[in-house]
């Protein structure tokens, strides 16, 4: 990410995370990822995430 931003300084990169069964779950910008490497970002609008007993539950309208 650091190299990409160096090569293309005026470009904003958006990274998204999703499972094949759920598609879009979370997103973050390249700058946010560099500030907290490894983050999966925040949920997309209408995505709900909950954790119970070390199990992550996701509810989404995206397909």
UniProtKB/TrEMBL annotation:
Keyword field: Ligase
InterPro entries with a match to the protein in the record: ANL_N_sf (IPR042099)
GO molecular function, one term: ligase activity
Annotated protein name in UniProt: AMP-dependent synthetase and ligase
Domain of life: Bacteria
Record organism: Veillonella dispar DORA_11
């Amino acid at each position: 990410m650091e190299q990409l931003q160096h090569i293309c300084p005026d470009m904003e990169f958006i990274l998204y995370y999703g499972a094949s069964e759920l598609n879009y779950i979370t997103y973050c910008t390249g700058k946010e990822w560099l500030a907290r490497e490894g983050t999966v970002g925040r949920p997309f609008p209408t995505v709900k995430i909950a954790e119970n007993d070390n199990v992550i539950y996701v509810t989404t309208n995206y397909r």
